[in-house]
Amino acid sequence: MTIALPKGRIADDTLRIFSSILGEEFLFDDRKLILQKGNFSFLLVRNQDVPTYVYHQAADIGVVGLDVLEESKIDVLKILDMRIGRCKIVVGSEIGKPIDYTKSHIKIATKMPRITQEYFSKKAIAVDVIKLYGSIELAPLVGLSDGIVDIVETGTTMRQNNLEIDSVIMESSVFLIANKNSFFSKKREILQLQEKIKGFL
Ligand code: PRP
């Protein structure tokens, strides 16, 4: 069984869960991107690439945030909420400078253009989405945008940059996902794993 993990803290947490439920240690060697042990191959990939590996069946299952999944719109099965990596996707703006929704075009900076566009379309608000790759909180401070759509976990980054939450778009946490064909062909193994993780959580 091949499992795609997003590099960083979520991979560490997930490997810890696997080590606990399977009773053996799973640790990547420095800089190695694949870890093979017994029946398992773990792949270390970029967060946003997890759904792609799973969709194309390069991995049978994967671990990824609901925010990434929603943004990618990739068709995979969500099989378990792992209740880690909890965060919110919010609209934010400078404290004391709320977004002026009467303007004809509002500029919103974000890493998540699709979620942003959908959210504002549903509210019939026209937005120019400015796609950035990080440090989103900077955009309204230097006049690049009127507001942001970003992830809030502890709230520290927004607070320290004089921003506040306007509205919450969605809550997110990390999900175990599966390729549809793999779920059919390896149903027993996948469900067993899902049960063990569920028990552990
Ligand atoms: C994310 C997000 C916020 C921050 C929120 O950024 O985009 O900037 O974390 O966390 P907090 O509420 O706990 O402060 P990330 O650390 O992924 O870095 P990036 O800005 O380079 O994307």
TrEMBL record:
Location of the ATP phosphoribosyltransferase catalytic domain: 46-199
Keyword Membrane in annotation: no
Ligase as UniProt keyword: no
Gene Ontology CC terms, in alphabetical order: cytoplasm
Pathway as given in its UniProt record: Amino-acid biosynthesis; L-histidine biosynthesis; L-histidine from 5-phospho-alpha-D-ribose 1-diphosphate: step 1/9
Molecular function per GO: ATP binding; ATP phosphoribosyltransferase activity
Catalytic activity as recorded in UniProt: 1-(5-phospho-beta-D-ribosyl)-ATP + diphosphate = 5-phospho-alpha-D-ribose 1-diphosphate + ATP
Cell compartments where the protein resides: Cytoplasm
Cross-referenced InterPro entries: ATP_PRibTrfase_cat, ATP_PRibTrfase_CS, ATP_PRibTrfase_HisG, ATP_PRibTrfase_HisG_short
UniProt KW keywords: Amino-acid biosynthesis, ATP-binding, Cytoplasm, Glycosyltransferase, Histidine biosynthesis, Nucleotide-binding, Transferase
Lineage: superkingdom: Bacteria
Subunit structure: Heteromultimer composed of HisG and HisZ subunits.
Family (UniProt): Belongs to the ATP phosphoribosyltransferase family. Short subfamily.
Swiss-Prot/TrEMBL domain comment: Lacks the C-terminal regulatory region which is replaced by HisZ.
Name the UniProt record assigns to this protein: ATP phosphoribosyltransferase
Species whose genome carries this gene: Helicobacter anseris
Gene: hisG
